[in-house]
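Please, structure for the following, as tokens.
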Amino acid sequence: MHITQESDYAIRIIYCLAKNQKRMDARSISQEMSVSLRFSLKILGKLVASGLVASFKGNRGGYELARPAAEITMLDVIRAVEGPYQLSRCLEECGECNRGASGICAFQQVFRRISEQVNRELGAVDFAQIVASENQCR
């Protein structure tokens, strides 16, 4: 099981902005993170709409983090591009049980517990930590 490519790229884009600590244009972000410009712009639009990234128009335009990297978690980024993380569709409000059951079953209880644990872990990792650990690896 993997996160989507869009979430992977969104995490890279936020990392790029956190690491560089400056306003960057979409083309530079795209090149530095090896993400196509078109896909970068789509993701940046979602990140701006979610309030994680600020965009600026004009000569000195570009993108920068809307708040400090220490206040942006991996969970924030995944939610911005995909919505809430849930291991199984059966956890959604209108999720349909693929076996036709109604109510809560043993599988749903397990999927909910795992989803909550993954969300806690993703919410515990912020981009200041990631940048700091990357700097220690050099």
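Residues 25 and 62 are 4 Å apart (CA to CA). The beta strands are 53-56, 62-65.
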